[in-house]
# Entry
Amino acid sequence: MESITAQYIGTEKRPYLWQIKEPVTVELPAGETITIPAGYTTNFASIPKALHSLFSVMGPGLSIAALVHDYMYDKRMYEKELGEELARQRADAAFLFLMNKYSPGTKGRNKLFYRAVRIFGRGMWRKNE
# Structure
């Protein structure tokens, strides 16, 4: 499994913020790769505080998947080629693919998180315009 070296840089206003210290390269579906550069900041996953006792932001398979998903959303990857909706679908599909790849024993949780980003992700995508 790819590993992540990150430093906590949270503040009172943004308590769940981390900075990636070394580049992370991950294989996506269809053999495509993506590299998240050192210096990129992420919250890993926007899990509501009330659910933190049930789901860890740093849970099995979640941190890599969330990092890639955050990066694809922040950079609006593939939007010029595919349009907003298909680009978002591609990022969300990569999220599910990576959760299932690195944490195949939690497919129920993975599907739940995938549905959450499908439902609530549009606002975050558009926030990055």
